[in-house]
Amino acid sequence: MTTPRWSRVLLKLSGEAFAGNAGSGIDGEVVTRLANDIVEVKRGFDVALAVVVGGGNIWRGLTGAGAGMDRTQADYMGMLATAINALALQETLERLGQETRVQSAIHMQQVAEPYIRRRAMRHLEKGRVVIFAAGTGNPFFTTDTAAALRAVEVEAEVMLKGTHSGTEGVYSADPKVDPDAELLTEVSYLDVLSQGLKVMDSTATSLCMDNELPIVVFDLMGPGNLAGLLAGERIGTLVS
Ligand code: UDP
C-alpha cells in the first residue's frame, strides 16, 4: 500500500452531488461512482477516511425558512436528509466490500450508531470508513461546519471538500459569469473570509482557520481526483 500525503482525511460530500443531473433525490449511479472512488483510495493507500455527507439534494433548512417555516424545524428536516444520504452511501460502500459505520449526531439507534468520538477513532483505526450523519446535530449550522468540526475532533490532517458543479476549486470570480475568472491554486483562510470567496460558510472556514486545518476544494466528479490528491498531486485549491 502506498503512503498517502495525509494519513487521516475527512471527506465532505455535498448532498447535491448525490442528485446527479436530476438536481434532487439520489442518483444510484453517482453514489456508486463516489463509493468506487472511496474504495479505490482505501485499497490503494494506507489512509483513515471519514466522510461527512450533506443533505441539500433532499432538503435545505433555508428553503423551508424562506417559505415561512420555522427555521429550527426546517433545519432538523435538513439534518434528517443527511442521514438518508449517509445510509445510501453506506449501503453502496458495503456492497463494494468496504466496511463502514454510520454515526449520527441525532439519535436514531435502529439505523446508525450515536456519534461517539472515541468509537469513531477506533473504527478509523480498524480501517472502517466512518460516515457522519445529521450534521452537528444543531440547527443554524451547515454540514460544512459539521465537516470542519468532525475533522478537528478525529484529528484529520485535512478536509477534502468535493464540489459537484463542474468547477475545479476556488476561483477569483464566478467562472460561470466572468470569463476572466482564474482558478486559484492556493488561498489563505483570511482571503476566503475577507473576499467572500465561495468556499464554505464563514463559521466552517473560521473553525478550520482557528485549528489550522487545511482544506482542499476539488472537483469531486473529476475521475481519479481523490486518489490523485492522496498521491500528492496538486489538484483543486488549497486553503490554509
Ligand atoms: N443542517 C443543520 N445543522 C447542521 C448541518 C445541517 O441544521 O449541523 C441542516 C440545514 O438545514 C441544511 C441541511 O441540514 O440546509 C442540509 O445540509 P447542507 O445544506 O449543509 O448540505 P449540502 O449543502 O452539503 O448538500
Automatic annotation (TrEMBL):
Keywords: Allosteric enzyme, ATP-binding, Cytoplasm, Kinase, Nucleotide-binding, Pyrimidine biosynthesis, Transferase. The keyword Kinase applies. It holds the Pfam family AA_kinase. InterPro entries: AceGlu_kinase-like_sf, Asp/Glu/Uridylate_kinase, Uridylate_kinase, Uridylate_kinase_bac. GO terms for biological process: 'de novo' CTP biosynthetic process; UDP biosynthetic process. GO terms for cellular component: cytoplasm. UMP binds at residues 55, 75, 136-143. The keyword Ribonucleoprotein does not apply. Catalyzes the reversible phosphorylation of UMP to UDP. This is Uridylate kinase. It comes from the Bacteria. Homohexamer. GO terms for molecular function: ATP binding; UMP kinase activity. Belongs to the UMP kinase family. Its EC number is 2.7.4.22. Pathway: Pyrimidine metabolism; CTP biosynthesis via de novo pathway; UDP from UMP (UMPK route): step 1/1. It is found in: Cytoplasm. It catalyses: UMP + ATP = UDP + ADP. ATP binds at residues 12-15, 56, 60, 163, 171, 174.
